[in-house]
Amino acid sequence: MYDVFNSSHLYKREYADVEESSESDERPRDGFFKDQLVCFLGMKLLFCRFEVSRARWTCNTLFVPASTGETFELFSPFDGKKVAKVAEASAEDVDSAVNAAQAAFPAWSALSPIERGLPLKKMAEKITTHKSDLADLEALSMGRPVDGYFDANYAAVHFNYFGEAAYAQGHTSLNTPGFLNMSLRQPFGVVGIIIPWNAPLVFFSKKVAPAVAAGNTVVLKSSEKAPLTSWKLAQWIEECGFPPGVINVVSGHGQVSGNAISAHMKIRAISFTGSTRTGRKIQIASANSNLKKVVFELGGKGPAVIFADADLEEAAKQTEFSINYNSGQTCMANSRIYVQESAKEKFTEVFKKFASQRKIGNPRESGINHGPQADKVQYDTVLKYIALGKELGQVSLDGEANSENLTVHPVIFNDAPEDHAIMKEEIFGPVVVINTFSSEEEVIAKANDTEFGLYASLWTKDLERALRVSKKLESGMIGVNWGLVDE
Ligand code: NAD
User: Fold this and answer.
1) Which residue ranges does the record assign to the Aldehyde dehydrogenase domain (predicted)?
2) Angle (nearest 5°) at CA 231 between 226 and 236
């Protein structure tokens, strides 16, 4: 059993002093910055020079228990065994983390992008070296199979990329007589980060790497269902050379620590990935506190549109992978599939063949590509939707569920009414609906009839149609002849 009692991980800065000054006009290109407009009156000023300071640190790195001494227990979804005891951060702990981050910000943001990049690169190395351990921690906590665990490579690529990406370009005015207007890209200060359980390492890297590369300091809250990889990375922060206070990791539930981050007056921006329901709460907490900038990646009910001229074998293979990978717990998954009528039979047959071949079992064992749902709550939710779908009577693959190890075999529903709950709500399980369409206009209307808009895919060999339909699908991302990562 892991004792993550000390996972509420705060850095305290004890002393920082201005030691040297340097010139820097470099700012991050991507991610977490704000634009600042600076208008100079008078064209004589052609060049401006910023004097910034660096700080010298003498400080302690701390792994501290929750101030209240509270902990929560984490159980393996597959065998029910206790895997960890985890610190439950309080609002006071969040406050300490924010104070540490705020104290670290002036010196960290004054470093050059190269200097900020060095510890990011080291973190990439650490993640790569320990990828099997990281995979195992995720398998233990939320049942993600170790086979096909791409997250460590993904995270290492992100840390590496942002280790070199922090040279931002601002804008200047082209022709404003008498003025020189410049838009500078500046870090926010302290950034709050809240991540979900379905791909914790992916979201840790996707949010922390660009935020700190841009000169921000961060307070990250891991998910209560999968805190172990965040805890592991927290152990490497100091070793990689991040100054104390730059990355603070707290563990705990949405209530209290998540809410304390969303409502904190000193946090200037928040990056959140999780459910739409929680996203709403965070937006409200932001509005009720300091109107911090909020950046969301929320839920999905992604459509996949399969035209009859597509490579049906490939479309079926990839869409099956998309919905059943990670036991259907993927925000980008195509949970609604629309197949052109003439291709329905062949597509469904191949889809069913792949879905039936899933190797279901212990996620820590090699050769398994379908583990349990992340916990009992998730399992019960999925079963509730399966029961609702079965009332409709159109099931072409009816998987079993096992309440002992929380596994759910893939389920395929057909011809569900567009307004039914299984078509409208995110199930987050291995459950797909395959419906049909006859015309392009009809399928675009059906695909867009949703409150979600995260990801959509379309499958056709007709490039003109691919471009036309892509533009009409109301979705943030569109995959053309591509579903999800397939190892
Ligand atoms: P969730 O919203 O329940 O929890 C996400 C995080 O928010 C957790 O760390 C949780 O502790 C925290 N939280 C809960 N209540 C809070 C509150 N009131 N204030 C602040 N923080 C709070 O989501 P989940 O169950 O962990 O993840 C599944 C959801 O995430 C699905 O809806 C899925 O589609 C979505 N998701 C989206 C993406 C994406 O990129 N768009 C990626 C992965 C997951």
Assistant:
1) 64-483
2) 145
**Comparison of pLDDT for 41 and 116, the residue scoring more:** 116
Residue nearest to atom 30 of ligand 1 (CA): 274
> With a 6 A CB cut-off, is 187 part of the ligand 1 pocket?
no
Tokens, residue 7 = 């996972």
* Angle subtended by helix axes 440-448 and 463-472, to nearest 10: 30
The reply to whether ligand 1 has any atom less than 6 angstroms from the CB of 426 is yes
- Based on the fold, state whether residues 330 and 281 are members of the same structural domain: no
One domain, residues 410 and 461: yes
Indicate the pTM of the whole model: 0.89
Question: Same domain, yes or no, for 289 and 307?
Answer: no
Residue 31 in contact with ligand 1 by CB distance below 6 A = no
Per-residue pLDDT, 64? 83
Statement to judge: residues 324 and 361 lie in one domain: yes
378-415: burial string, b at 16+ Cβ within 10 Å, e else: bbebbbebbebbeeeeeebbebebeeebbbbbbbbbbe
pLDDT above 70 covers a percentage of the chain that reads 87
Within a domain: 13 = no
Token readout for 341 is 């009528």
Read off the pLDDT of residues 300-344 as tens digits, 9 standing for 90 and up: 999 999 999 999 999 999 999 999 999 999 999 999 999 999 999
For the chain, the maximum distance between any two Cα atoms, rounded to a whole number of angstroms, is 77
For every residue of 248-266, DSSP letters joined together read: EEE---IIIIIHHHHT-SS
Question: Residues 56, 99: one domain?
Answer: yes
CA 220: distance to chain centroid?
Answer: 12
Quick check: is 28 in a domain?
Answer: no
Asked if 278 and 366 sit in the same domain, the reply is no
The closest residue, in CA terms, to atom 22 on ligand 1 is 254
Residue 301: name the closest of 385, 196, 424 by CA. 424
Containing domain of residue 464, as a range? 302-480
> How many beta carbons lie within 10 A of that of residue 130, not counting itself?
17
Mean pLDDT value of segment 352-357: 97
Model confidence band, residue 61 (pLDDT cutoffs 50, 70, 90): low
Number of domains in the chain: 2
Residue at a domain's end among 260, 276, 297: 297
The residues, any chain, with a CB within 8 Å of residue 459's CB and separated by 6 or more, are: 304, 305, 306, 307, 310, 311, 314, 315, 480, 481
The catalytic site residues sit at 297, 331
Same domain (yes/no): 338, 203:
no
pLDDT in tens, 120-170: 999 999 999 999 999 999 999 999 999 999 999 999 999 999 999 878 777
